[in-house]
Task: inverse folding
């Protein structure tokens, strides 16, 4: 079922969102100072392609620099991306068939709002192993 949802998601939303995040990542890499946000954009782009079966968790050991970077991201991009995911999610919720895709958009809000210090992991992985830094 995950694969079917991911394929339909890819056609209706995922490909366009991933391309948008990838272009933003390229721009961030061109501006050199914004490379950490570029890396986050590529991570989110991969998540946008195939969101079902994955989730976002906090990366252990993310320090103050991630917090400061998230505040900068929030001001310049995070709010706008979050509003986009919120609008698309509500739009998908208006149809019964689109509800899983609306949920997927809502799942992307935390990572689009504050991407630094986050990690995208498989859903079936136990959360505490990532929280405390042990291997899969």
Result:
């Amino acid at each position: 079922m995950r694969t079917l949802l991911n394929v339909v998601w890819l056609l209706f939303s995922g490909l366009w969102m991933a391309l948008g995040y990838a272009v933003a990542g390229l721009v961030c890499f061109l501006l050199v100072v914004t490379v950490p946000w570029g890396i986050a954009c590529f991570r989110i782009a991969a998540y946008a392609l195939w969101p079902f079966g994955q989730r976002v968790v906090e990366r252990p050991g993310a320090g103050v620099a991630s917090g400061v970077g998230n505040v900068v991201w929030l001001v310049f991009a995070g709010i706008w991306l979050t509003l986009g995911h919120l609008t698309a999610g509500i739009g998908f919720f208006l149809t019964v068939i689109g509800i899983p895709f609306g949920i997927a958009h809502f799942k992307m809000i935390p990572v689009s709002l504050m991407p630094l210090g986050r990690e995208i992991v498989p859903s079936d992985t136990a959360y505490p192993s990532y929280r405390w830094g042990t291997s899969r």
User: Anything to note?
Assistant: The chain has one domain: 2-131. The CA atoms of residues 31 and 70 lie 17 Å apart. The longest strand covers residues 54-58.
